[in-house]
Amino acid sequence: MSEEKQKQQQLPPTSAIDNLSSRRLENWFEYPVRVQPHHTDYTGVVWHGSYIAWMEEARVECLHSIGIAFVDLVALGCDLPVIEMSLRYHRAIHLGMAAVVKTRMIEVSGVRIIWEYMIESPHQQELYVTAKVTLVAVDRAKGKIMRQLPPDFKDALARLSA
Amino acid sequence: MSEEKQKQQQLPPTSAIDNLSSRRLENWFEYPVRVQPHHTDYTGVVWHGSYIAWMEEARVECLHSIGIAFVDLVALGCDLPVIEMSLRYHRAIHLGMAAVVKTRMIEVSGVRIIWEYMIESPHQQELYVTAKVTLVAVDRAKGKIMRQLPPDFKDALARLSA
Amino acid sequence: MSEEKQKQQQLPPTSAIDNLSSRRLENWFEYPVRVQPHHTDYTGVVWHGSYIAWMEEARVECLHSIGIAFVDLVALGCDLPVIEMSLRYHRAIHLGMAAVVKTRMIEVSGVRIIWEYMIESPHQQELYVTAKVTLVAVDRAKGKIMRQLPPDFKDALARLSA
Amino acid sequence: MSEEKQKQQQLPPTSAIDNLSSRRLENWFEYPVRVQPHHTDYTGVVWHGSYIAWMEEARVECLHSIGIAFVDLVALGCDLPVIEMSLRYHRAIHLGMAAVVKTRMIEVSGVRIIWEYMIESPHQQELYVTAKVTLVAVDRAKGKIMRQLPPDFKDALARLSA
Description:
Four copies of one chain form a homotetramer. Chain A is α+β, with helices and mostly antiparallel strands. Chain A contains five helices and eight strands. Chain A has helices at 2-10, 17-27, 50-65, 70-75, 151-161, and strands at residues 29-34, 78-79, 82-89, 98-109, 112-120, 127-136, 138-139, 144-145. Chain A binds chain B through residues 42-43, 45, 48-49, 52-53, 56, 74, 79, 81-89, 92, 140, and chain B through 2, 42-43, 48-49, 52-53, 56, 74, 79, 81-89, 92, 140. β3 (82-89) of chain C pairs antiparallel with β3 of chain D, so a sheet runs across the interface.
């Protein structure tokens, strides 16, 4: 039931569907995964914490796809710790199944960057997990939140959300 | 700043503070941990996903402390998957540091059980993480949400929240 | 002692070395990976335990590439637990670096299957890790080591080592 | 069968048993664990990679017990990466079961430190895993193997192996 509700809330108003959904779809970065034995627990499905690693990988690869190597950010002295994270588990994924971790940046506000996630079956028939992750840019040397994002990084993100 | 705000939101109305806070404090189950190399990432602090394992351990040990062996629940055919989880990361914990994972059950509504978490320094001077986790009781054989909790389990939980 | 024996069995007769080694090289299955933050520890390089997950993934995907879905084996009642594993760490892999997990089955003796690993840089310039993993086929229902491999599985493995 | 053999090989010659075994037993550091859901995989027993984390924890806590804080070593510029590791899995450990990770340093040769492990049931009736891990002291700043162990560390280790 809560799955139904959730899906409905994600839908834009009917009249706007055609334009929006196509534009939104393009914004998703897709990261394919397969459930390996080490992702599961005694129940035979993915352990709830295993998704966190997949989500991080999808985020890093999404940045990589627009020319931002995570390690370069680190070399610049900029870290991006997670400061907030929420997940809703709609359906379990079983050993051996394939899935797609879809992610997109939905907001950059100052030095906070918010990512949205949908983990789905390969043909979008099943929704497994929805999630939101907030990062903040931190100056590694000072151990403090940055006043603003490094300019190159900001420009690259602007391209991603364009 | 957001830490301050968070703490304030957790406070009950002023007039009720004395009674409530003392009673609530007694309800916390405390699970001590130390940050091992495998908990950290390249930044030298705990990787944000490592807390999920600690939180699970604290939950299982809390149930154990009131006589509920997780494995007995499983043997009864009852599983308790996480269906929702949210975390706020206030401060990083460095390699070698000790911390206490405090947890308590804050709500049992039908077959949903909500746990609250505070991960703190050993003497409560620092707040590292706050979190909330919702479980639901599932009938393993049928793969369906149970209509009600197994009676023994329900009674034991009642003792925990008393 | 059994290690000695094992080593001897891996060596081809001296006269056959040249031919064999070239043919064996073709048998490597290659599984590409990139070092994500969650693979690292406080030193900034891959935590020594993270390789175990990569090695499992490479093994499962190698079987998949010859038509053996791990989950089908499980459905058949056949499990393949690791009974022995050894790793040598030659060089660390840093955050953000790409690597290739190369694996091949080097021996099937009864129900024991031995896999060999080399984890290298993408162009084989650096050798990071070498490893060996021994699996044994277990009958899930009985919880006992099988007398022989399931016939379909055996045939597929024969193709892999051909 | 190989379990039996293994056990026998660990036994000193009969005439020497009383002295040796008692002295050796005292040298084991014991680190208790319980199998949590996140340690297991779809088979309901501990995933073979989960032991690596337990073994690291036992090693760090063993050093801690003789006054060596791992984080102090790191602060001194000394790292202790694993350069070799081998494990033999004798018996699986099921969800919810308690176990003891026993470890001791069996050799310090130059800057190489070798640890031995036995993971057993709480009353030594069952042997689950035996393992050996070799560490080497590395100068973090230079990224090179040290010529000798830091003096304080060496002295503390001498006490441990005395």
